[in-house]
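User: structure tokens for this one?
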Amino acid sequence: MSKSVDLWLDLKSPYSFLAKDPAYALESELGVTLRLRPYALDIRGAYNVDDPKAAERGRRRIKYLYADVRRFANQRGMIIRGPQKIFDSTLIHLAWMFAEAGGKGRALIDAAYPRFFKRELDYEDRAAVEALVKEIGVDLAGFDAFATGAGPALLAQHHAEADKQGVFAVPTFVVDGELFWGQDRIDFVRAKLGAKADG
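Assistant:
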């Protein structure tokens, strides 16, 4: 029986982008079934943007985090540019779940991440997101109904399950109830999975 790992991602998170390919590699290396799950970061809430002093500290922290992200990205030849505003990832996450239902969730993730971090894709632009869904081979029929009907409820279910698992940020791997937060925790995940296989 294949081992299952939940990986919680936000498609606006550069650290989630960095985690994606190493996480995919776990499947071939260790026979893991990787379940990619949407979890939207509340950046405004986390950095208290309504308090000027807290907001300034938050801006300094975000500036540092993006400098750090670029260090990791440069090692792998990836381009990650900081977004020019705080994006709402709801629409792109709805598109991800819609594509997932058609067996194309990863195709959407793989196409969306590099474009967003090159500032070539606006996650809040409905036409651009729909064009991406169509480009990866998913029929758009039913997307509008999903995005205004079952989709938000399904997204809320994912968030509720993430909260139940104790997820507080992304990327977070969950292996047998144990959390590993951060793209640089992949070796810990691998060791946990290896120990599980030996046990």
